[in-house]
Give the backbone structure.
Amino acid sequence: MEIFRLEDKITTEYSGHHQLSRFYHFGMGLPQGSEIQLDFTEAEWFDGNLCALLWAVAYVLKKNFGHLISTDEIEIKNRFDILFRNGFLRTGEVILDNRKSAVPIQDFDCSDKEGFCKYVNDELLSHRGMPALGKDLKDKIMEDLLEVFCNSQHHAGTSDPIFVGGQYYPKQRVLKFTMVDVGDGFLPRVNKATNGKIGSNLDAILWALQGNSTKLFFDKCPGGLGIKNMYKYCKENGGVLQIISNDGFWSSDLEGTIFEGGRVLKAPFIGITINLIFRKDL
């Protein structure tokens, strides 16, 4: 059995994504059908919302390489019980989310718009960690998230599931929500739509943030406002939007820093990950 050790703090930022994408590359380098144990003994913290990304990595390693992923459930239960409370790890016993901090980890077929909308309404927008929102703003966030969900099938070039989940951090009064698809990422279609003018994953992310969409080029229909609107909401309400597409990592809270244009992941994961950080009662 091969062992991959998670270290330090796995949080919703560049370093956390770097660790989980390293796990993907670790698995890629092993013989087909290997057994991998995820070792949490050196980890100090794990953001529960990133279980969506960890699940996506494990899914790809199993589907593409036949790897079997396991963990020491006793160790995790003693130190990271959020992974049980949010449904990422399951045992025969029922484990209740007594802290009411988890937004359950779930996967959706990319055509299951109805299921996704019900999940967003019941688990995210109704969560105690969400800021107080009027009906119009709730409807707008639902509409924008649904567009991103539907666009995943459009740009991902895949029929694989979309992985979602979140966690509320009461002390910081923030709710973090993560969506992951395991497709091609933004760049291939953006590069084609712009006749090669956009040639990097970071530039493709910035292109999408401006409200551009490859739908207009390939399907002759509008699109792309979901990401732009979420960016606007975060800027106006103290939140954070992060977009990771293959090796491109962009975060709105890096604006005004040397990483304003984004950062490059040295060991990238596939597809697109979107993190939304909502701040409550600023």
